[in-house]
Amino acid sequence: MRPLRRLLLPCIAVAVLAGCGLRFTYGQLDWLIPWYLRDYVTLQPAQRSELDRRLTGLLDWHCRAHLPDYARLLRDLGLAVQAGPVSAATLDAFVRRGEGLWDELMRTLTPEAAALFASLDDVQRAELAAAFERRNAETREEFLEGSAAELRERRIERMEKRLRRWFGPLDEPQRARIAQWNDALAPTGEDWLAQRIAWQQSLLGALDARSAPAAFERELEGLLRTPEQRWPADYRARVAHNRAQTLALLADLTNGASARQRAHLLEELAELAGQFERLVCTPSSVPA
Predict the structure, then answer these.
(1) A Pfam family for this UniProt protein (predicted)?
(2) What is the pLDDT of residue 270?
């Protein structure tokens, strides 16, 4: 679910940087992104060179324009936690700030992505379609296959693992609250995968019309910035319900945290904010 994947920390890097050094990972995005893309499509040398050129400009813009905002958001969140108690509405405001940064990134990324996609030939389009099918099968196996009890246990374990990063060890009442959160969720698993597949098919369909650049870029922008507008109303309502349940869980855990857990949370927020601040581009750090 698009909204939930950024709830624990409303900034883009957290999910992909968990367990990795932020400075190392962010500094290596110029090769990590192409390395990730090669799982979907094999780029020709000229395409790779063009990707590298566009990526250099995009990363320069991002470290100047967004990293200070990430740091500011995290420090503001830390101040809100210190002032406490925090409400679900307070946390939602921080999430929306993060989503605003995400939307700005997608808007800036659209012309770059459109240029790359428009350069794909029919063989590469077929390779991309096959990669989507492969990844979807892997996703189904990881997240949707198993008994109801097994799926429930895996969801709870994933949430506990994410939360331990921010709070440290969880006690039994907190684990019970996480289980309660899980049981209050509206079922979305099959629909989530169905909407992911529908998005992929829309992208592949847009690629069939990539010879008309302006129309193709408009379609791609919609896919990147507002994919939820294509969701059925019932699915959108269930996603909103689950978002509210998750915000309530985060507020309850924050407000009920022990002194040690609160200190751990504030330390994690401050440390990550500091890392973002140290990564902000300066004139001396950007090649002329």
Answers:
(1) DUF6279
(2) 93
* pLDDT reported for residue 6: 37
Domain ranges in the chain are: 4-285
- How many CB atoms lie under 10 A from the CB of residue 33? 15
Place of tokens 């924050």: 254
Q: What is the residue-wise DSSP string for the chain? A: -TTGGGSSSSSTTHHHHTTS-HHHHHHTHHHHHHHHHTTT----HHHHHHHHHHHHHHHHHHHHHTHHHHHHHHHHHHHHHHH-PPPHHHHHHHHHHHHHHHHHHHHHHHHHHHHHHHT--HHHHHHHHHHHHHHHHHHHHHHT-S-HHHHHHHHHHHHHHHHHHHH-S--HHHHHHHHHHHHHSPP-HHHHHHHHHHHHHHHHHHHTTTTSHHHHHHHHHHHHH-GGGGS-HHHHHHHHHHHHHHHHHHHHHHHT--HHHHHHHHHHHHHHHHHHHHHS--GGGS--
Rounded to 10°, the helix 122-143/189-207 angle is 180
Q: Which residue has the higher pLDDT, 9 or 160?
A: 160
Assess whether pLDDT exceeds 80 at residue 36. no
